[in-house]
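Here is the promised in-class demo. Please do not try to memorize the tokens; focus on the logic of going from shape to residues.
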């Protein structure tokens, strides 16, 4: 007997809608099937409605953006100012190194990545491209040409394609892109090769700014590889260090977004702690913090979270999150969210039973006292590396007090011994990426406008012979996000409890 499905797909009504002899379902057609949707189902706008673009606008998403904003909270003028500051930076660099050439800057967007045929992963834009353009379109590129303040900005975008847009949603209209993003012109990305070669013919001497060693987008990289092959005598530099120097210092608009993402993350983790109970799985805690972040407005988690119960807290990047949390365990959760392009990064450790044991409390308070001291040290604007050295010394003293290190250990050996209990750095820069501005060294002094993490920990491996048996298997980390200001450090994640009494009250609520 013919199944209902086969009866349907072989019916004249269904066959009439096909433009080829191949049949396939919407998610997995077996061969280049083109099924024309009725006009009533094709992408359209109501008469008089604002045109839907490839990303939210103030007209289509007034609950997210205000007039004049390209991204929520960030106005068009700020993106234009960023491009001016960037071009000024590379112009100064060029003059300093006797490069009198014109500047040609190529910043690619990210590309769509697929988990399997036609099924994409969630798209995340290249942070450098987003920082300079505000554009969320994949498979695009920003080109800046000229010198200093005298430069031209061009966005290369995918052409509008009604068939693709039926499946994937609208693309940003080429004609409206210049006014949307404050650039001089927008062109089809297919014209990028001819644009580059035309520029090379018009300017006998120029300096190409493109990160050739880190290909962000395969198609753009292929174009640039061919371009460099044809113009092999030209010089090139990576623009990433200069963009990240700008990203290191947060504008008032960015500070507001950092405050928002940190509040969302703090509240989400607090709610997760209050819902935790003996016998819950790490996976359920993962799901809870993800849910709480999204329900408060975050687009998604900023990274795969660590949800480690008991001994698993000693695995620094434990992300399997597939075990049961048993009575007497502590839970170490390292999680954060991304909110309109900006990330939070928070770690809390709490007792699943609702109260710390005396041993757990001693270890926890040792880490907490070190973290508070380190945050206070940020007032002096140290380097991150010197903050790490301070952590090792402070941890060493606390470990001696706990009896894990000999009272007779020398000062020189103290830091090394402490490092064996905390084998990671104590801080990193934070912003559009979790480990933000990775090209900025940790050896520079902190300054107002930067946002960093402060995250000491003590991890007592079960095989650790230095520690008393009652401490073995425990792991504690406490992490906050800190804004540096002229008047002192501001803890952006202070809304997430970390005092022993506050945590226990939250666990028992």
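The designed amino acids, position by position:
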């Amino acid at each position: 007997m013919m199944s209902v499905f086969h009866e349907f797909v072989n019916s004249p009504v269904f066959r009439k809608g096909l433009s080829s002899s191949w049949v396939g379902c919407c998610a997995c057609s077996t061969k280049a099937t083109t099924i024309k949707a009725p006009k009533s189902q094709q992408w359209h706008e109501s008469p008089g409605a604002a045109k839907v673009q490839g990303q939210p606008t103030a007209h289509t998403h007034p609950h997210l953006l205000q007039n004049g904003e390209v991204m929520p909270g960030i106005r068009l003028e700020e993106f234009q100012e960023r491009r001016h500051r960037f071009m000024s930076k590379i112009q100064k660099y060029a003059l300093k190194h006797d490069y009198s050439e014109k500047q040609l800057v190529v910043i690619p967007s990210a590309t769509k990545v697929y988990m399997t045929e036609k099924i994409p992963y969630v798209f995340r834009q290249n942070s450098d491209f987003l920082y300079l353009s505000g554009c969320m379109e994949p498979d695009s590129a920003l080109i800046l040409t000229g010198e200093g303040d005298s430069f031209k900005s061009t966005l290369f975008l995918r052409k509008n394609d009604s068939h693709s847009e039926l499946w994937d949603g609208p693309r940003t209209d080429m004609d409206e892109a210049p006014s949307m993003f404050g650039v001089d012109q927008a062109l089809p990305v297919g014209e990028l090769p001819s644009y580059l070669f035309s520029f090379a013919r018009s300017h006998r001497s120029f300096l190409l700014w493109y990160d050739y060693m880190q290909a962000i987008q395969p198609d753009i990289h292929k174009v640039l590889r061919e371009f460099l092959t044809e113009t092999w005598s030209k010089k090139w530099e990576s623009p990433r260090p200069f963009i990240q120097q700008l990203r290191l210092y947060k504008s008032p608009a960015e500070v507001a977004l950092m405050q928002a993402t940190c509040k969302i993350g703090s509240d989400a983790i607090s709610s997760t702690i209050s819902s935790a109970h003996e016998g819950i799985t790490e996976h359920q805690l993962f799901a809870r913090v993800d849910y709480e972040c999204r329900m408060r407005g975050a687009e998604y988690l900023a990274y795969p979270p660590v949800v480690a119960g008991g001994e698993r807290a000693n695995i620094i990047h434990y992300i399997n999150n597939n075990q049961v949390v048993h009575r007497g365990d502590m839970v170490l959760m390292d999680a954060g969210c991304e909110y309109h392009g900006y990330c939070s990064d928070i770690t809390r450790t709490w007792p699943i039973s609702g109260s710390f044991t005396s041993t757990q409390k001693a270890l926890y308070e040792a880490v907490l006292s070190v973290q508070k001291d380190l945050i206070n040290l940020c007032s002096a604007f140290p380097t991150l590396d010197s903050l790490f050295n301070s952590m090792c010394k402070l941890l060493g003293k606390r470990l001696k007090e706990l009896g894990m290190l000999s009272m007779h250990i020398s000062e020189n050996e103290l830091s090394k011994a402490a490092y064996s209990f905390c084998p990671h750095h104590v801080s990193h820069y934070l912003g559009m990426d979790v480990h933000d501005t990775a090209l900025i060294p940790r050896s520079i002094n902190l300054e107002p406008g930067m946002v960093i993490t402060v995250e000491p920990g003590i991890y007592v491996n079960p095989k650790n012979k230095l520690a008393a048996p009652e401490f073995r298997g425990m792991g504690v980390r406490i992490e906050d996000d800190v804004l540096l200001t002229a008047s002192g450090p501001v803890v952006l994640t202070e809304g997430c409890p970390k005092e022993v009494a506050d945590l226990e009250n939250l666990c028992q609520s």
